[in-house]
Predict the 3D structure of the following.
Amino acid sequence: MSTRIAQSDVTWGPDGLVPAVVQDRADGRVLMLAYVDAEALAATFATGEVHFHSRSRARLWRKGEESGHVLKLVDVAADCDGDALLFTVAPVGPTCHRNTRSCFDPAGIVVAAVPAAPAADAQGFAWLETLWATIDERASADPAGSYTARLVAGGVDAPARKVAEEATEVLMAAKDDAVAGPDQRLATRDALTGEVADLLYHTLVVLRERNLAPSAVIDRLRERHKA
């Protein structure tokens, strides 16, 4: 749930704009810098997707209106002087027009080629936003042409049964890996990786079928982490 600051909380510049820093909710990575006016801030709150004022177009601009790589609002805060904003977002796909995750990434480092976090040991969980966006889109597609749509159309039992099935297969693959010899380890690790991937996917489909956003699960994990 975003913090809806009031227009009066913002110290607008002489041109009616303030700079807005955009960061990924997954790990705090700075994705881009743009400018916001009162119209853009109101549109952001009204739609839940970040809007800016495009200085080059001289108009309201919904980020991702052409590419589909929207920024879903999580939170917004003003700095101590009110003359800059910080948007925390859940990005759908790469943010930069160069197909990089961040506008501050070197050119040519595309989202699919690098982990979605700056730390050397980062796991790339931010990419799950892309998977969720695909599931969300395909859920309303023709079931005849989409496995995801067929699962959602089958009601809660269809994806939930797959979660139970995949969880069992994860257990079996993990036990196989635990007793595998050095010459078998590559194959058992590959099998375990695949089964966990299937489990994650089907779990997300259950959430979509129930119209429950994954962010609610992340928030619950955060609450437990603080406890």
Remarks:
- The chain has two domains: 7-113, 139-226.
- The longest helix spans residues 185-209.
- The chain has six helices and six strands.
